[in-house]
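Why this split exists: single-chain examples teach little about how molecules sit against one another. For that reason, every record in the complexes split bundles all components of an assembly together and asks for one structure covering all of them. Below is a record exactly as it appears in the raw files.
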Amino acid sequence: EIVLTQSPATLSLSPGERATLSCRASQSVSSYLAWYQQKPGQAPRLLIYDASNRATGIPARFSGSGSGTDFTLTISSLEPEDFAVYYCQQRSNWPPHFGQGTRLEIK
Amino acid sequence: EVQLVESGGGLVQPGGSLRLSCAASGFTFSSYWMSWVRQAPGKGLEWVANIKQDGSEKYYVDSVKGRFTISRDNAKNSLYLQMNSLRAEDTAVYYCARDFGSTYYFDYWGQGTLVTVSS
């Protein structure tokens, strides 16, 4: 089973700043990685799939990069609504598996 | 508008059973793989099971194999999860989710239904 390790566990930033979230896989997942955003009491929302493709309706300030074992989600300029928990998820190996999450909080 | 609405959660004793339902609307339900994903209180996400468009293929995470059964009724646009021999560690919010293009990515999710296994 592939293990996804997200870092940092918590990221404290201010609106307008740039956020960089990391996801590292225990073995290569090629580009088969997605990112989700989850706000308290809500379901997750798909942001990025196949490492760098934005899902429908996702603002351009969200971008994904990486391949193999190292991936990054970047939010170019934080909006107040971006403070949430972010999860990465791989589909390269079965079963699909999620990372433990990064909490993005307001500084 | 795509909508997924789960129901059927609740409090159940260890060893008990529960059947979750997910009502889908706003898309051609019979054209998509569907999944159940769960989230224990304060924890991360765990994929549980999925089912092919026509119900001919079903897959489960090891921890629920032999205890949970996923099914669907395309005529009713509904997805189900029959959960038997429930354990405390099955306590979670259960989400139904649409598989995005048969990829094991999930582009639409319901709001979830809470299952609590406790005596």
